[in-house]
Write a structure and sequence with these properties.
Length: about 70
């Protein structure tokens, strides 16, 4: 998801990615991680990171938000 997000934001590669497809992939991946989060703190953290990245990519959220999580 990180690589696809970077490609989507790229001036050169962004033309090859459809925003609807990327959004669907974000939704599916986040749903999977949410389902698995109760059994793994790492997966819960990954889910949080992807939710922040999704906001940055599609809503123009603050990129610093994606790195402001606790590493507990």
């Amino acid at each position: 998801m990180l690589v696809l997000s970077a490609a989507f934001k790229s001036k050169t590669l962004g033309a090859f990615l459809d925003s609807r497809d990327l959004d669907k992939l974000f939704n599916r991946t986040i749903k999977l991680l949410k389902d698995l989060a109760p059994i793994s703190a790492t997966l819960a953290q990954d889910c949080f990171i992807l939710q922040c990245l999704r906001r940055v990519v599609f809503e123009g959220g603050d990129p610093e938000m994606a790195t402001s999580f606790s590493s507990d």
